[in-house]
Amino acid sequence: xxxxxxxxxxxxxxxxxxxxxxxxxxxxxxxxxxxxxxxxxxxxxxxxxxxxxxxxxxxxxxxxxxxxxxxxxxxxxxxxxxxxxxxxxxxxxxxxxxxxxxxxxxxxxxxxxxxxxxxxxxxxxxx
Length: 127
What we know:
Oligomer: single chain
Low-confidence stretches: none
Strand content: under 5%
InterPro entries: DUF1294 (IPR010718)
Protein name: DUF1294 domain-containing protein
Pfam families: DUF1294
Keywords: Membrane, Transmembrane, Transmembrane helix
């Protein structure tokens, strides 16, 4: 197989881990919603946080063994869409991504933005 064809046939790690994360989140959320009869919001939040935690654990393992890594952008995206507690727990539990300054700055920026959005939502819902 020509080298360029082989390279183009590879799946982007971004696409791969977005698809895996999305499917796992959907599976867990549907299981919690229909199986355990959880409210949709709680089912989603539990699912995205479990998925984010698992992605951190997988990435730590891959970092140790030299395998295919989960891109930082994917980890941040999962935190941004509701997985911040799972990301925080994954960082602490697996001792992963805790020292890299640029990663931590963006992570805490996402957390701060989420706090502002929640505060604004609470404020606007009461007035």
